[in-house]
Design a protein that fits this description.
single chain, 140 residues, mainly alpha, 5 helices, 0% strand, elongated
């Protein structure tokens, strides 16, 4: 039987926070104040992998649903008893900030999804000549 290291919420939460930040902006890994080996490990986990959240490709993913799923799982993370009062406050502030960012991402992905639906609907109504004109206008 394989033994696993003992992890607490205090151990895991910073990694979750880094994951969210790196997913938003992968280039921040270069500016993190960690050893090269840690930066390489973070890149391997959160930049090189197509998706940490699922086996779907980004093209097949419903970003709105993925963001909501991540929001729900993060919202349900409970602050561990092993933290002192200051650490609990810091974690809760960070959690609130991260949840706000996730909600913003969900809103943006929903907006993009609605725009895509609108474009698809309009293109079904237009004649081929009209579609070409609209595509030409949108490209400029």
């Amino acid at each position: 039987m394989q033994e696993y290291p003992n992890l607490t919420f205090k151990d895991v939460y910073p990694i979750l926070t880094l994951m969210l930040e790196i997913k938003k902006n992968p280039s921040i890994v270069d500016n993190l104040p960690y050893d090269v080996s840690i930066k390489d490990a973070l890149r391997e986990l959160f930049v090189k992998n197509e998706s940490v959240f699922s086996n779907k490709s980004l093209k097949d993913m419903d970003l709105e649903d993925e963001t909501i799923r991540l929001y729900e799982s993060m919202k349900n993370i409970e602050v561990g008893e092993s933290l002192d009062a200051k650490e609990k406050i810091s974690v809760l502030k960070l959690q609130a900030s991260s949840l706000k960012d996730l909600l913003d991402m969900a809103k943006e992905s929903k907006r993009i999804k609605n725009i895509k639906w609108f474009e698809d609907t309009i293109f079904q109504i237009l004649t081929p000549e009209q579609r070409d004109k609209v595509k030409h206008i949108l490209e400029d």
